[in-house]
Design goal:
The protein is an alpha+beta fold. The protein has seven helices and 31 strands. The chain binds zinc ion (2 copies).
């Protein structure tokens, strides 16, 4: 649109240049001198400052506190709805249309994903605008990107003569903070978290680490009470730190612990029918029990010892004669056998019993399992053990555990419910492990994945047991890129 003077036929030069504002009839349209759209750009910190290409931190709200002077230089780079500016070459009210082009760079969201989570759907509509009097227009809040990372967006504007201009790429990324909380007295804490940062960076999640906090030592985290104590200690330490606390709710905590052993109490093991009494040999009974998470799988278990001060593996022992009745066997007649700390048999001295024939029964506490790490009750809390099976955990296992537990916090393994991406092809739930995990590398449809064969076949960092793998598999990584972590924790 726009108006200009009637061209002066005496001057072809003037005609070619367009119009002369100083003379002529203002009502006469001049096609050669129509205003032209010049550009569309992403605004970058000021109404007159644009950037061709940039990263957009889509999970963080548009608040000053998240501008960190490093990755994030101004508020325009925050949130799902970046500002755009359109310019024409002349002042005045000029009509134009704007749309976002379909993003490139990573897998598109499926229709089912878009149906579950509005943040998986970018604004596809083309919208109409008119410039302000100066021939420019700032568009604020009308175009939403997506919650996932690695999506490259371009915006396109078109004027009334179908002249098209485009922005450069705006790449979606996510950023959050984490802090390590180290129990006092630990001697084998992971030396570097760089592998954790590197893995998430691959999926457009930038992790920013605060200086570590210190928390009280607990010899083992097994019961709910232990977990609650740990969780409270982490919360207290975070809230007392003036740098860490303000980064909530975009803050995860990683607590380094001693053992994370789970006790299976009062397991009864029994001998075959034996002769007891003076001169009779000691009776050796293997220690086996079903798993608390896999009640149909009876396997060798190790006696509970040296994990919590004052807690013993021994509960009681009895002799049950064939003819009925029972007698107590003194604790000092029952000892453990095994290799190193792996005590998988009990040995009962039956020579002091009256002569008889029957079964020896011993009630013991055993280790049900040792966890490598946990996603704790506090919404933003994870922990990783620095010791397991009475030994220091190598860095490779701690790295694997931290990547794994952070994975749970960001929504892995996606199971296709709620605001999550579609179910990952190699997702499984339970089956000997607790929660949603990935069986990539193992057979599909196993009744239990908590076998040594599955552990060694597994390929993904978020398999249900610590396998020292440091990366999400090709199935999982697609989902990690798509996750919506905009609510924080
Ligand atoms: Zn897990
Ligand atoms: Zn996987």
């Amino acid at each position: 649109m726009g108006w200009c003077s009637k061209p002066d036929k005496a001057s072809t030069a003037a005609e070619k240049k367009g119009c002369d504002k100083k003379v002529g009839d203002p009502k006469q349209p001049c096609p050669l001198a129509d205003p032209n759209i010049v550009s569309i750009g992403w605004l970058d910190g000021a109404d007159d400052k644009e950037v061709a290409t940039a990263d957009q931190w889509v999970n963080l709200p548009k608040e000053d506190k998240w501008v960190n002077g490093a990755e994030i230089q101004n508020k325009d780079r925050l949130g799902l709805k970046p500002r755009l500016k359109v310019k024409f070459d002349k002042p005045g009210s000029h009509a134009f249309k704007v749309k976002l082009l379909a993003p490139t760079g990573t897998d598109a969201y499926t229709d089912t994903e878009k149906g579950r989570n509005a943040n998986f759907k970018y604004t596809e509509d083309e919208k109409s605008y008119t410039t302000d009097a100066d021939g420019t227009k700032i568009i604020d809040g009308d175009f939403a990107l997506v919650a996932g990372g690695g999506y490259k967006f371009k915006a396109q504007a078109k004027d009334s003569k179908d002249k098209v201009v485009k922005t450069g790429d705006l790449t979606t990324k996510r950023l959050f903070y984490y802090v390590e909380a180290k129990m006092t007295g630990l001697t084998s804490v992971l030396s570097s978290t760089a592998p954790v940062d590197t893995e998430y960076d691959k999926h457009y999640m930038v992790l920013k680490k605060h200086s570590a906090l210190s928390i009280a030592h607990q010899s083992n985290i097994g019961s709910d009470t232990d977990t609650d104590t740990l969780s409270g200690n982490v919360d207290t330490a975070v809230d007392a730190d003036a740098t860490v606390k303000p980064t909530k709710p975009y803050l995860l905590t990683v607590a380094y612990t001693d053992h994370l052993a789970v006790k299976h109490a009062d397991v009864v093991v029994q001998s075959a029918t034996v002769d007891v009494g003076p001169g009779k040999p000691k009776v050796v009974i293997p220690v086996t029990a079903a798993g608390l998470l896999s009640p149909n799988t009876v396997a060798t278990r190790y006696l509970w010892h040296d994990l919590v001060a004052g807690e013993s593996w021994f509960v009681e022992a009895k002799f049950k004669p064939d003819g009925g009745g029972e007698s107590t066997i003194a604790a000092d007649k029952v000892t453990h056998k095994g290799t190193g700390d792996y005590w998988n048999e009990v040995e009962v001295d039956v020579a002091s019993l009256p002569a008889g024939r029957g079964k020896v029964e011993v009630k013991v506490n055993v280790v049900d399992r040792m966890r490598g790490g946990l996603a704790l009750g506090g919404a933003n809390q994870t922990c990783v053990c620095t010791r397991a099976w009475w030994s220091d955990q190598p860095d490779a296992k701690q790295e694997c555990t931290i990547i794994h537990e952070i994975g749970h916090k960001v929504g892995m393994v996606a199971n296709g419910t709620g605001a999550l991406p579609d179910k990952v092809a190699t997702h499984y739930s339970g089956k000997g492990h607790a929660g949603d995990h990935c069986f990539k590398g193992c057979p599909d449809g196993e009744a239990s994945y908590s076998t040594s064969a599955n552990l060694s076949a597994s390929q993904c960092v978020i398999f249900g047991a610590v396998n020292s793998k440091n990366a999400f598999c090709d199935n999982c990584e697609k989902a990690v890129k798509k996750l919506d972590i905009g609510s924080g924790w």
